[in-house]
Write a structure and sequence with these properties.
Blueprint lengths: L9 E3 L5 E5 L2 E13 L5 E14 L2 E2 L2 H6 L6 H17 L7 E5 L8 H18 L6 E6 L6 H14 L2 E7 L6 H7 L3 E4 L1 H7 L3 H16 L3 E4 L5 H10 L3 E2 L8 E2 L4 H4 L21 H5 L20
Parallel strand pairs: 4-6, 6-7, 7-8, 8-9, 9-10, 10-11
Antiparallel strand pairs: 1-2, 2-3, 3-4, 3-11, 3-12, 4-5
Helix pairs in contact: 2-3
């Protein structure tokens, strides 16, 4: 795909969003918010993660099934065009500061020329979306980052251009804090299942607190994803984790999404889910270490200002 034809395979939907086509598939863009706890204690949308939602004959298909049917020689172009639609659809939202996390696989680009071409594609997409380079976060899975020096070089190159870098799946496999420090990402996204397991007891929570503190001291922002219960969101505050993502906060939505209406950019408190939506009950250590709250509204309080 030549640089001049980057938009040739894009489809403009009736609602103004962008999708793309591959063989019999229509590839749509879903966005899931990443929330930040602000200094005032409120939760506000900081960023989005771009997720592909394939459809065939109008019916949804799992990403795993779709990618199993993509020809190996087409993976690089599919990878690129998906980043493009996520960036364009984020630009359509009424959010002047929100970033977009897009998956990136440095190993797909075997030559410096191919990498330069991809960077130009991302710059062009960002320009069309009205977004500055620092609002694009290139997310690399640690599971697939076997060559630490290659990933570190990639991160340096992206930073030099103005993009940001996130390392995903920390805690899965042979995670190493020193390795992360070498790569110097802006964000580290912790592997969801690993975090949930460690949140279940006081020893695990203490370890998470130490790791989070080390990353923050090095200027790296931890992100806890896959949060499924309200108590996990509360525990994040105690662990020093400011960036959070998960179904208990907001599920992914196909672009154009309802997030502008539900979570205005200038901020309104995010109310806790109903009892039926709050997810599993907290483990015993989380309940036992906290005295009874004298403020009855805390039982149904918002995720936001504490003590309201």
């Amino acid at each position: 795909m030549a640089l001049k034809s980057i938009f040739s395979s894009l489809v403009r939907e009736v609602d103004g969003t962008w999708s793309t086509a591959y063989r019999t598939f229509n590839l749509k863009s879903a966005l899931q918010p990443i929330f930040r706890r602000t200094a005032s204690g409120m939760l506000d949308i900081d960023s989005f993660e771009g997720l592909v939602r394939p459809h065939r004959n109008g019916e949804p298909v799992t990403p795993g099934e779709f990618f199993s049917l993509v020809a190996p020689e087409d993976i690089e172009n599919i990878d690129s065009i998906l980043r493009t639609i996520h960036i364009l659809n984020t630009g359509r939202l009424n959010r002047s500061r929100a970033r977009i996390f897009v998956n990136f696989h440095p190993g797909l680009f075997q030559t410096p020329a191919k990498m330069r071409q991809e960077v130009e594609r991302m710059r062009l997409a960002a320009h069309e979306a009205g977004m500055t380079a620092d609002r694009i976060v290139c997310e690399i899975s640690e599971k697939k980052a076997s060559d630490t020096q290659m990933v570190a070089d990639f991160a340096y190159h992206m930073h030099d251009i103005g993009f940001r870098v996130a390392l995903d799946d920390y805690g899965a496999g042979d995670s190493d804090i020193d390795r992360v420090k070498l790569i110097k990402p802006d964000y580290v996204k912790f592997e969801a299942g690993w975090v949930r397991d460690f949140m279940q007891n006081s020893a695990g929570a203490a370890l998470l607190r130490v790791i989070v503190s080390q990353f923050r001291a090095d200027g790296i922002e931890p992100v806890f994803e896959g949060l499924e219960a309200a108590w996990q969101v509360d525990l994040c505050e105690e662990l020093g984790v400011l960036l959070m993502q998960g179904y208990v906060l907001a599920k992914p939505e196909l672009a154009p999404t309802s997030f502008d209406t539900r979570f205005p950019e200038l901020g309104s408190e995010y109310f806790a889910p109903s009892r039926a939506e709050r997810g599993p009950a907290p483990p015993a250590f989380f309940r036992e270490e906290r005295p009874a709250d004298p403020h009855p509204l805390r039982q149904t309080r918002t995720f936001g200002k504490r003590g309201l």
